[in-house]
Structure formats: structure tokens, C-alpha cells
Automatic annotation (TrEMBL), chains A, B:
InterPro entries: KH_dom-like_a/b, OsmC/Ohr_fam, OsmC/Ohr_hydroprdx_reductase, OsmC/Ohrsf. Keywords: Oxidoreductase, Peroxidase. Signal peptide: none annotated. This is OsmC family protein.
Amino acid sequence: MASAVQADNGVNVEALLAAKEALTNAPEAAQFKWRAACEWKDGTHSHSTVESFYGLGQDQHRKTTFAFDADHPEVFASLDQGATPVEYVLVGLASCLTAGIAAVAQNRNIQLKSVKATIEGDMDLAGILGIDSDVRNGFSGITVKYAIDADAKREDIEALVAQSQKRSAVYDIVTNPTNVTVVVN
Amino acid sequence: MASAVQADNGVNVEALLAAKEALTNAPEAAQFKWRAACEWKDGTHSHSTVESFYGLGQDQHRKTTFAFDADHPEVFASLDQGATPVEYVLVGLASCLTAGIAAVAQNRNIQLKSVKATIEGDMDLAGILGIDSDVRNGFSGITVKYAIDADAKREDIEALVAQSQKRSAVYDIVTNPTNVTVVVN
């Protein structure tokens, strides 16, 4: 029987289910604040860092500070010293859906062999360049294509991907409006 | 007179204005596709790369491939081998607004000395953990705080930030809904 096989995708589902139980009983611990700091370098080049976040009732500090350079590419007369900001959004969306696929597969006892995504966001630059006020600045649409090798039927693999979308933070952020407040100190 | 001083923020505004002119006359060249590839490693850890994009009527290739690891932190029983996907979105938003501030300042002949942003996204984990279906998976809100040192009055600095929001691709993506299609090949 398939149920005799224990899938191991490296996701600690027991810990996640325990966290769900614990946070159900302590809703204030479930209030998280995710953070980044960004410093302008020159031109369109900036350097961002990610280290601390708030959760489980206190500031949490990592052992590592993650650092990211962002810039525009040379075709925009920039120096291409990092990925463009919109590409960071694509990385966030693809990695969120991919982590979700691994977690859902673990929970459903499906062994993953490989998961690869390509993601593409369409953008008409007539928006950000101010050529046409009817064109939005952001993506007109995003397509994510998955190639997944797993010990499962195609319909079960498709169900993994669907459940990951349903529980993805970044998918929600991109597909639904989020209020952003920008202030100058 | 202030107009006698030439600000240099490292942004080639002449090239951007020339691009605007050129793309106004060749709208098909303004159709861009931004891309990333994401490969699952283990658990919630994935590795993404950013290199090519499509624009100006053809595939464009960079000299460098930018690489990014994403993971969940240790408090989620993961190995913290990279920033979390939602932190990538914060990096994208902060870096997009910051590049915009530099470009608008250049266009307005305002010399920037330093631009620093801190960005924070609030998230109630009751959403992604499936504890409360009324709570969204993504951020309940995002706050960006700028500290800007520039040769300009406070109201002019605030106007820079406002104009950057108005022209930011990532600000648009986060504050407005974007259609995302996910397919399994």
C-alpha cells in the first residue's frame, strides 16, 4: 500500500502542525512582522539586508544577515549591479509556491523527486515611462510553469500545486491588494 | 540660483527620456517579460536564478546570473538557508521605491546625499496556518519609512517619495491585484 511508504521531503510537518495548535491557543504569538532595510548606493542601485523579524511575541534574530543588491539592467542605462525590483517579486512568488508544494506533499505523504518552476511577468513599459496612463506600472500578468517529478499521479501533483496557491503568502500579496503606507521620517 | 547646480545622482535621465521617446514611437519594443527560475532543494529551501529577460523586441542576456536562496526561518522548523519569500517582496518594494526616488530626484535636479528605508510587513500567521479563514495569507499591511538627506526642502523630499510611489512597478503590484496563472507542464 502507498500508505506504508513514508515520504521525506525535508519538511517537518509535525512541527508545523504543533505550531498551528500552539498559535490557535495563543493568537498574539501569531502576529509577525517581516522586515528589510534598503540603502541607496548610486543611480538605481540599492543594497538591502534582511535579518530580524518579530514573531512569537518577541524580536527574532538570525545567525546570518541576507544581503541583496538591486539595480536596473544596462538597456535602461543602468549598471546592472543586481536583479531588478520586479524580479525580486518573481523570486518571492516562485519560492513561496515551491516551499508550499514541498510542505503539502509532505503532509500528503507524496515523495518529491524534483520541482522546477519558471516564472514570467509581462510588463508594458508604457506604464512606468509615463507614455500611456491607461497602462499599469506593474505586471499585466504572471505565468508560473511547474515541472514536477514525484511518486504521484498527475492529478495528485496538480492538487499539490493548487493547495500551495491557496496557502501561499506571496500569491495572496500579488493577486490581492495590500495597503502600503510610505512615510518620510 | 538653485538651477545653476547640476545634481548628479548617477541616474542617466537623458537616456530614460530618450527611451520614453523611442518607445512611444515603437510600442512593441516596450513589451517586456521579466523572468526567474526556481528549483526546489529540500524542505522549504529553494534556489532561484535571474538572468535573461525579453524586451526591445528580443531576448536580453546579462553578463551575470543573479542567484537567490529562499527558505523559512528556524522558528518554523526550517533551516533558514535564505530569506523567506515574503521578505523578497519587501526587498523588491523598497528597492523599487528607492530607485524611483533617485530617478525623480535627478529629473528634478535635487542632489541626494543618502536615502535609507526600513520596511515592515504585518502578517497574522492564523492565515497561512489555516487557523482562521477570515485572515489572509499575505500581509495585512506594509509600512515603509524613509530617512533622506538631500539638498532640498522637506516638502520637496516628500514630493520625490510621492512621485516614486506613483511610478513604481512593485508598489503597483503590491497595492493592486495581478492575475497569476500557475500551470503544471
